[in-house]
Amino acid sequence: xxxxxxxKSPNTILVGGKQRxxxxxxxxxxLESFRKVVTSRRSVRxxxxxxxxxxxxxxxxxxxxxxxxSSGLQPWEFYVxxxxxxKAALVKACMSQSAAKTASELIVCVxxxxxxxxxxxxxxxxxxxxxxxxxxxxxxxxxxxxxxxxPLDSIAMLKKAAFSVGGLFTPxxxxxxxxxxxxxxxxxxxxxxxxxxxxxxxxxxxxxxxMEGFDDLRxxxxxKLADGAFPIMVVAAGERADDGVFWPQVRFDRKLFVHEV
Length: 261
Ligand SMILES: Cc1cc2nc3c(=O)[nH]c(=O)nc-3n(C[C@H](O)[C@H](O)[C@H](O)COP(=O)(O)O)c2cc1C
Description:
Blueprint: E1 12-15, E2 18-21, H1 31-40, H2 54-64, E3 76-80, H3 84-93, H4 98-102, E4 105-112, H5 116-125, H6 134-146, H7 154-167, H8 179-203, E5 207-211, H9 216-222, E6 229-238
Antiparallel strand pairs: 1-2, 3-4, 4-6, 5-6
Helix pairs in contact: 1-8, 2-8, 3-9, 5-6
The structure holds flavin mononucleotide.
């Protein structure tokens, strides 16, 4: 194993005579602290006037962007709305919900469907190993074609038909092909980043409320979002007020949700 790992020469280990990347799983993580973060996260709808330090917000955003993401393509963006005028407009666009009105930070999470091509090329340029494996290279060269729905989903429909025929004989990916499927594709990864974000705030002692109750059109205009970018959530963050959680958490019987098959 090499001891002086760098981006272009990471730690490696020999497995079955082949040199493989080596990243051991850290042990000794405090499970109870993790559990406390997860179980104490609540949707907080009333915050105090205490500001969240900028370094905390930045750290939480950094942790958000470590969320898993489809094909590593990071189809998310975060707009930390700081200007007083824009913040007031965003509160209004969030229908003046209490969480938005009292939050010291409002962060709009945007899912992007229009950077697949650019980020696929960037991935190949910034590949973290000395050589890009041929399969990986092929994958990122093909992805942009895979995620091209065409006008009115025309190309998507052709691909769906072709893939369905192939699917009679072997398992195949059945999407994302259409505009709607590609939006869902981006929203999935962006939502995972939002979950990281709110857990990170909780770990820092602050609280959040995820909100999808906002006027999409107004938020799009406020942030001047292009067609391939759509806001999926506004995350309100701040210090929990004593009466900031409105009622105890409700979760139904796990039998309704967990199935062993
Ligand atoms: C995608 C999503 C959208 C949400 N939108 C809103 C919202 O617009 N306003 C609000 O007060 N809470 C909103 N919530 C918070 C939920 O109401 C809350 O998570 C749920 O009632 C469970 O409560 P808990 O978060 O305290 O466990 C949203 C949560 C999610 C995940």
